[in-house]
Design goal:
Blueprint lengths: L1 H12 L6 H4 L10 H11 L5 H11 L3 E4 L2 E4 L2 E3 L26
Antiparallel strand pairs: 1-2, 2-3
Helix pairs in contact: 1-4
Amino acid sequence: MGSSLVLLTTQAKALDDPLPCHREDLQLWFSDLPGELQLAKAYCQPCPMRRVCLAGAVERHEPHGVWGGEIFAKGAIIAEKRLPGRPRSAGHAGARRRPRAARG
């Protein structure tokens, strides 16, 4: 398990350009906000270490965060993170209902 972290660190140090996770705000990679996690995923796409990072995260069963351009939650890759709570019902799109007397 530790060998993948050593490999990742060694290879990252050999690069001339800092990795996106070192260049941008690190909190994006561990945010609870879906939009910030999507931004971190986008930053990962051109990263030369993306595949090694992802393989290491899978090997280590990373509990959360963005690793290698994928979102991890409870040690598994998920497509997207949702905010906690119940989703809004399909009929509730933010529109107000008309008062009963005004209905035709």
